[in-house]
Structures are given as structure tokens and as C-alpha cells.
Amino acid sequence: MKHRTFFWFFLPTGLAMLLFIALPIISVLIQSVYAPHEAVLITVENSGPFGTTTSTTIDQQATEALRAAEPLGRFVGLQIYLDRGHLAFGEVAELWRTTDSWGTFFSRLGNLPFYRAMAFTLTYTFTATPLLIVFGFIIALAVNSLHRHLKGLVIFFSLLPMIVTPIIGSLILFWMIDSRGVIGSLIQYLADDPNLSLKASTPLVWISIIVYGIWHSAPFAFVVFYAGLQTLPQDTLESAQIDGATRWQQIRYVVIPHLIPLVTFVALIKLMDNFRVFEEIVGFNAEAHATSLSWIIYNDLGGETRLLSSASATSVLTIIGVAILLSPVLIRTWRDFNAKTH
């Protein structure tokens, strides 16, 4: 392809990436190092028959003029990143000096908003991602072995969880695990404890959210793996059968190696998606038990006082977290590509 042809071919995509990816990231990065201006205060002395009193008020005109002159706010550098709502290095260092055991350290570390959100985010990401890949692979194998007249119907029902809007699906499961719901009542009956509530226990809330995340995302892995199974070389599979390979050996030595590139693709997509877990927390109304980085951004931007700088700092930390998560997979993919080309 000639350079001129490639330029015009890539131009629309490049412009879209610049407008919708690069510029928003740059604007968020800039906003994260600026904080809103503080109100300009003036001190007024009032003299009366009972003496002189001093009062402090806000100079509205001076405050508006300052904010109009510097709309980004005042430059604070990395101060927002280091405050208690984010990395909180000072608080973490203090906890390290004052605690005498790992359990106490991590327990108190969970009281800091950022690290509390990171604990759930990482737990959700590294639990849901491998499990949805495994379940998606199992479903794909099962559907691929069905009679062709049954495949269409089974595929349709297998895709239903992915079709349901995440917030709607999480709300339905939230109502089902309620003490008056189907699942909640069943668990109370099996445990013989009428006071048992899934919503009152942090570990059970975490498990419920993770189970829903797997249920919702497994169809995506299923579709990808099922498509990959259609390209499986039949002569290789037949050779393995002639050599006496069992069903498990065929899967292990023929099917799985063939699907490894697709496993990498699904892992990349779902790592990014699960690290930004948000709808499940809102749908389960689980803010008291589980928060995530995306939920912190939503919380900062909600209400009457929108904390744009705080939300921007959390967004930048989220981008950095996603990059760190994806780097091992991307590095391995790059090495495999170089090994094949040389």
C-alpha cells in the first residue's frame, strides 16, 4: 500500500481517535492538576452602640472575577493525587508506622476510599475474568457438540444474559436475593435462619456481584470461542482421534492451542471492562459494601458540588491501572508475534 493511500485510509480513524480518545485524556490530565479557586474572603468591622464587631463574608465579585480570569482553577500539581481521597501516601505511611501486624494494616487501609475501591475492583477483575473465560469455553464446547437442529435455540438462550442491560440485570438479581425474593427466601430456608440476609454481609454482596458479572459476560466469551471452534482444522482433530486421543486430550492438545489467540483477545477486552465495574454496584445498591474507581468518579460528579478535579485524578489513575493490567498480555502477544515473524 502506498503512503498516500495509507494516509487517506487511516485519516478518518486517526481523527476519531484524536477527537474521542486523545483529547479527552489530555483534558482530564490537565484538570487533575488544578483545583477550584477558594472563595475570596473580606473582613468587615461594624461599629455600634455595644462596641465593634468583626464579620467575615465572601466577596462575590472578586471571587467571580478570579474564576473568570483563571477558569481551570489554581495549579496544585500532584496534590489531589496524594490527598486522602486518592493515593494518600501520608496516611499509608502513618498506618505502616503505627500498626504491628499485616491484618491490622490492611484492615485500616480499607478505610481509605481509594484503596477500599481498589480492593473490590481487583478482586472482581481477577475473579470474574478467568471464570467467565472458563465458563464461556465450556458452553462453546457443549453447544458445538449438539445436533445442528438444537444449536440455534441453545445459542439464542445462551446470549440472553449479554443482551440484558447490565443495570437492569443487576436490579433483577438484587430483588431476587432480597429476603422476600426467590433466592433470598430459598437461602433462608436452606440455612434455617429467617434473619439471614445476603445484602447485610459484605462478602456475600461481593460474591453476588461477581456471580452476576460472570453470568452477564460469559456469553461474550462463548460467542468468540464458538466462532473459533468453527475454524478448528478437522484433519488435525481426526488424526488425534485415530491416534487414540481421549476427549480431554483432544481438547488439551488440539482445541485449546488453536483458541489461545482468542483467549488472549477475550482476556484483554474483559480485563478492561471488569476493571471499570460500575453498573453492578449501582444496581445492587451496594455502595456500603463495595465501591470501585468508576463509582468514585460517579460519586465525585454527582450532587450539587461537582468535584471535577477529584474525578479527573481518579480517571487518570484508572487509565494507569488499565495500562498496568494489560501490559503483561500485550508484551507476551508482541513477543509471540516477533517470534513468528523471525
Would you mind describing this structure in some detail?
There is one protein chain. This protein is mainly α. Among the domains are: about 70-110, no CATH class; about 120-290, MetI-like (MetI-like fold, Orthogonal Bundle). It has helices at about 5-30, 60-70, 80, 90-100, 100-110, 115-145, 150-165, 165-175, 180-190, 200-230, 235-240, 245-275, 280-285, 295-300, 310-340, and strands at about 35, 40-50, 50-60, 75. The strands form two sheets. A two-stranded antiparallel ribbon has the order 1-4. The protein has a two-stranded antiparallel sheet with strand order 2-3. Helix 1 (about 5-30) runs antiparallel to helix 15, helix 6 (about 115-145) runs parallel beside helix 10 (about 200-230) and helix 12 (about 245-275) packs antiparallel against helix 15. The radius of gyration is 27 Å and the shape is globular. The two termini are about 20 Å apart.
From the structure above, extract its key features.
single chain, 342 residues, mainly alpha, MetI-like fold, two-stranded antiparallel sheet
Biggest pleated-sheet summary:
2 strands, antiparallel
How would you describe the shape? globular
**Which structural class fits the helix and strand makeup?**
mainly alpha
CATH topology name of the domain at 118-288: MetI-like fold
Subcellular location: Cell membrane
Pfam families: BPD_transp_1
Protein name: Carbohydrate ABC transporter membrane protein 1 (CUT1 family)
Transmembrane segments: 7-30, 117-141, 153-177, 204-229, 250-269, 307-331
